[in-house]
Structure formats: structure tokens, C-alpha cells
Amino acid sequence: RAQQVREWLASHPEEAARVHHWRAQNAALHAAFDPVLEEAVPDRLRRSPESAVSRHAIVPRMAASLAWLAMGTVLGFFARGSLLVTGKPDLAASLPHQAAIAHIVYTPEVRHPVEVGAEQETHLVQWLSKRLGSALVIPKLGAQGFFLVGGRLLPGNQGPAAQIMYQDKTGTRLTLYVLQETGNPETAFRFANEGKVSVFYWLDGPFGYALSGELPRERLLAIAETSYRQLVGK
Questions:
Q1: What DSSP state is assigned to residue 233?
Q2: Tens digit of pLDDT for each residue in 45-80?
Q3: Cβ within 8 Å of residue 157, ≥6 positions away
Q4: Would you kindly state where each structural domain of the chain is located, as residue ranges?
Q5: Band of the pLDDT at 170, cuts 50, 70, 90?
Q6: What band does 87 get if pLDDT is binned at 50, 70 and 90?
Q7: What distance in Å separates the CA atoms of residue 172 and residue 107, rounded to the nearest whole number?
Q8: What is the pLDDT of residues 182-209, one digit of tens each?
């Protein structure tokens, strides 16, 4: 049954994108809230009814809350104009989060980690380049101990995105997330932690790039630098 679903999604890209969005949301929710399950119950929730705040104390607090809510509504109304004229969102701000979610969703896959495998690398490059609108380069990371698994097309916040996956001999996986660049200026390397996933990301030419993995920062940086040199042809 699962195989039938995968085959159907492969022939219906819009529905596949919707499923990817659901899976990404689920992964993000787990990453954000699973740690809360391990927290101890706060003391204030352990209080007996006798120690609860009296009704007379609650009423002023409710009034204050309503006042803050009203103020927030008014401020939001007057601020809406400034939000609407800010233009395009900052791609660099959202890039590491998008990359980390895609990494979390697909790296655990055993049977179907990619859509197109490394044995069809030429086709993979041509396909993703066409969908992203510019010539894509897939870095060679063998000298760093990582070898191409393959890649897939993903929906990004502002258009199509690509994920290139690598794996070393121990089974550790890296992903290079590539997103259409939308006029943002080029940036130097930046680093972000998204839960257990470390991300080095940058904007260059027609693309935004994010290299994600559960590796020490220094090692991930070395791999990111290797990728960058190949991507810019240096």
C-alpha cells in the first residue's frame, strides 16, 4: 500500500508538495515541543485548591489582560501598513530553518531518501537546473569522506528548492539545500543551530545554499568551504 501511495505521489507533484509540507510541519512541531514532554510539572500547577488565587485577585488580572489585548489590536492595525511595504522577506533569515526541516524529514529515510539516485547524476543535474531556472552544480565531497546519494525537488517558501544528499561510510548524512535566490545581496558564511542540526548557509549568484548535518561545527565548516569553492568555480 505504501508503495502505491509513493507511486501516485510521484505522478502528482502538487499533492506530493502538499504531503511534504505536512511532514515538514510535523517534524518542526516535534523539534519544538518534544523537549517540553521531559520537563517537570511547574509548582504552580501542583497547588491545592486552598492555595489558589482568590476571585477578587483574578478579576483585575483579567481586566489588565483585556486592556493589553485591545492595545495590541490597535497597534497591529496601525502597523499593518509598515509591514506591507517592507517588500520581500529576507531569504537568509528563513533559509537555515527550511534546510534543517528538510534535513530532518528525509535523512532518516532508508528505502526512499531521494527521488533521483547518484547513478543518474547527469539527469539529476539537468532536471533540478531546469526546475530552479539556473545551472546547478553538485559538489564532489569524496575528499571529505561523503559521497552522493542523490537528490530531490522540494517546495520552498518562494518557489522550488532542491535537496542534495550525501552519506559517509558510517551512514552519517549531509544535505545541501538549494533555493532560488530572489534579489537578496550575497552573504558570507553564516551559522545556525536548528535543534540537533547544524547549518552553514550563504547566498551567491542565483541561489541560496544551506549545508546541514549533525556534525561538529569545525568539520561542517570545512565541508561548506569545499562546497563553496566548487560552486563558484574556484
A1: T
A2: 565 555 544 555 555 555 555 555 554 554 443 344
A3: 89, 94, 98
A4: 91-231
A5: very high
A6: very low
A7: 9
A8: 566 667 789 999 889 999 999 887 889 9
- Cβ–Cβ < 8 Å for 181, 208: yes
Q: What is the residue whose three cell numbers read 552553514?
A: 200
> In angstroms, rounded to a whole number, what is the distance separating the alpha carbons of residues 38 and 34?
8
Residue 138 sits at φ, ψ, to 5 deg, of: -105, 110
Amino acid (one-letter) located at 4: Q
Q: Which amino acid belongs to residue 35?
A: P
Nearest alpha carbon to residue 103 among 54, 191, 163: 163
Per residue in 16-49, pLDDT (tens digit) is: 666 666 666 666 566 555 665 666 666 655 655 5
CATH topology of domain 91-231: Phosphorylase Kinase; domain 1 (3.30.200)
Cell of 178: 538549494
Distance CA(213)–CA(195), nearest Å, equals 11
Strands (E), 100-144: 116-117
First CA to last CA distance, the chain = 48
Per-residue confidence band for 177, with pLDDT thresholds at 50, 70 and 90? very high
Query: Quick check: helix, strand or coil at residue 19?
Result: helix
| Residue whose entry in the numeric block shows the C-alpha cell 561523503 | 146
